[in-house]
Design brief:
Length: 584
């Protein structure tokens, strides 16, 4: 992945999230206490049906563009590793891996006898092909520019080594990247892959295969390998269900012991169907008719409303941060004083944003690091509370003077007028509403503020990257293993970088580099702790809230278990455990 520009954690995170709209315990048994009927009740033999506000158009790892696309890819394709219980990452296509002492060479050993849906073997060549596409300058699809500094080489059919130009402690998270079939796509130019017809009829490696896709629905069937005879509902062997053993989570730099190839893992579900809707009213009508087992893509309030009728909202702690980026280039001067940045954050009523705009489907952010991350040390700083009076006092201490229409910054001759950029309401209503709330909070302490909504292309290409802005409310995909280097490092102010604030601080750069470097969990946590202390003092980016991913489920759906996620597709991490009960 791009080591100088952490793959989609920041570079394209803004654009992807802007366009996304609103979008196991130690065993693989469903957790108790989730509400609704329990797995001991009878299981229904029919597909799971989910209503989606939005549409899927491409189910290729190289062509996914929307949350609905990413949901399909998550079910159809596998990576070298996958998400496990809690915050763990466990083997998937690979059974185990080693890392050299420099942290630059990661060698993955694939499980033998794995095949694509068409029967072709899955080999190291597929991994080499996938990485080569992602790192090709002509490729512009998902993950573009995110693996530029990684090369892959195969030493045999089941062994592949990924070489990183710069060591990265959180590289295992990147290794969840879906792998694509080289034998079907190897002859296609990388630039053409995002729009190749493969996306409408993909051949994957996951527990489901796509049998139908159009603008109204997608149908998926369980993959049953040749010779496998299920004897239970969707399962194999005695009693049915997935015969998987979850490996014990390990430190990413500690070589885990080889795991035995698992038995055939078959879902309990007889299939999955996604039905796509253009508006909330039509989706709700289908829910009221009992046609749907679940609903996704809804705004927080709509999801809560739908759940009151025989359902529940299941929350997956998210790593998408709603934040205010400020122009910190010396030429602008307005926000260079940390006391001013602290005042601006004190003036923002973050708890109300979480309870009203997010309807509780999120968490107030006191750091740039997600609260679910093992790297976060909450003891490093004192959270800044909502306090408009303190905000005004801090502006005054920073030399600002309040006038009739606004405040005048220290040394300035005229009062400031702040233009707060945001995503368009139609593209991301939650981010837009958050920007409006922030603007009103700042007006409440006497600042003159206006909100300018922009398309993703204009926001990124015309305003943020060139530095033509004062403040911007942006969604940032921080990721499950947070790497803040792209957001704040001096080298990331180039056109392709994510440091849109223009911050230049060599001492901060050293802390950012240390935090992203490989090492033991203890060493990495110590490096992050030092970085957090600096970030708490500097407040270079104003954190507002972390958005959750969520889905509305009928009480007859059991098995889904929340864990921290970075995209909507991550919620299918335990889909093999899902069951539909008949509700009797």
């Amino acid at each position: 992945m791009t080591i100088r520009d952490r793959g989609l954690i920041a570079v394209l995170a803004v654009a992807l999230v802007l366009l996304s709209g609103v979008s196991l315990a130690a065993s693989l048994e469903p957790s108790a206490g989730q509400g609704g009927p329990q797995p001991s009740d009878s299981v229904t033999a029919r597909p799971y049906v989910e209503g989606v506000l939005g549409h899927a158009t491409n189910a290729s790892p190289f062509g996914e563009r929307s949350p609905a696309d990413r949901d399909l890819v998550a079910l159809l394709f596998r990576g070298l590793v996958r998400l496990g219980p809690g915050t763990s990452i466990v083997p998937d296509l690979a059974s185990h891996w080693e890392v050299d002492s420099t942290g630059k060479l990661w060698t993955f050993h694939l499980r033998p006898n794995q095949t694509w849906d068409d029967g072709a073997p899955i080999t190291a060549d597929d991994v080499v092909f996938t990485v080569a596409v992602l790192s090709d300058p002509s490729y512009t699809g998902p993950g573009a520019a995110s693996w530029r500094d990684v090369t892959a080489t195969a030493s045999d059919e089941l062994t592949v080594t990924l070489q990183l130009a710069t060591p990265l402690g959180g590289f295992l998270q990147a290794a969840t990247q879906p792998i694509a079939p080289a034998h079907l796509l190897g002859g296609i130019a990388p630039a053409a892959l995002p729009d190749d017809p493969f996306g409408q009829a993909p051949v994957g490696s996951g527990p489901f295969r796509l049998t139908y896709l159009d603008s109204t629905r997608a149908e998926l069937a369980p993959v049953i390998p040749a010779g496998e005879v299920p004897t239970g509902p969707g399962g194999s062997g005695e009693g049915g269900g997935p015969p998987l053993a979850t490996p014990v989570p390990t430190d990413s730099l500690v070589t885990p012991p080889p795991t035995e190839p698992p038995g055939v893992a078959l879902p309990y579900l007889d299939g999955i169907e996604f039905r796509y809707y253009d508006d909330v009213a039509s989706l709700k009508a289908a829910w009221d008719q009992g046609l749907l087992d679940a609903a996704s893509g809804l705004a927080p309030t709509d999801a809560r409303d739908l759940a009151t009728d025989g359902g529940r909202v299941l929350q997956y702690p998210g790593t998408t941060l709603l934040a205010v980026d400020l122009d910190l280039r010396p030429a602008r001067k307005d926000f260079l004083d940390p006391r001013v940045r602290k005042a601006l954050l004190e003036a923002i009523d973050r708890p109300t944003i979480v309870t009203s705009i997010l309807d509780g489907l999120g968490t107030k952010a006191d750091s740039l690091i997600p609260p679910t991350s093992p790297m976060l040390d909450p003891s490093t700083g004192q959270p800044i509370a909502y306090n408009p009076a303190a905000a005004k006092a801090d502006l005054a201490k920073a030399g600002w003077t309040q006038g009739v229409d606004s405040w005048t910054p220290k040394g300035a001759k005229t009062a400031i007028s702040i233009e707060l950029l945001s995503p368009e309401q139609s593209a991301n209503p939650v981010a837009y509403a958050t920007a409006e709330a922030v603007a009103q909070n700042w007006r409440d302490i006497g600042l003159d503020v206006s909100v300018t909504p922009l398309s993703a292309a204009d926001l990124l290409g015309q305003r943020l990257h060139p530095g033509g802005f004062q403040a911007a409310l942006v969604p940032l995909a921080i990721g499950l293993d947070p790497d803040l280097y792209p957001l704040l490092a001096s080298s990331q102010t180039r056109t392709t970088g994510s440091n849109v604030s223009g911050l230049q601080d060599p001492s901060l750069d050293r802390l950012l580099s240390a935090a992203r470097a490989p090492g033991t969990d203890a060493a990495r946590k110590a490096a992050y702790r030092a970085l957090e202390v600096r970030l708490d003092a500097g407040l270079y980016i104003l954190p507002i809230a972390f958005r959750d991913e969520y889905v509305v489920l009928r009480n007859t759906v059991v098995g889904p278990t929340p864990r921290p996620v970075s995209t909507s597709g991550d919620r299918f991490w335990d889909v093999l455990t899902w069951r539909l009960l008949d509700g009797r």
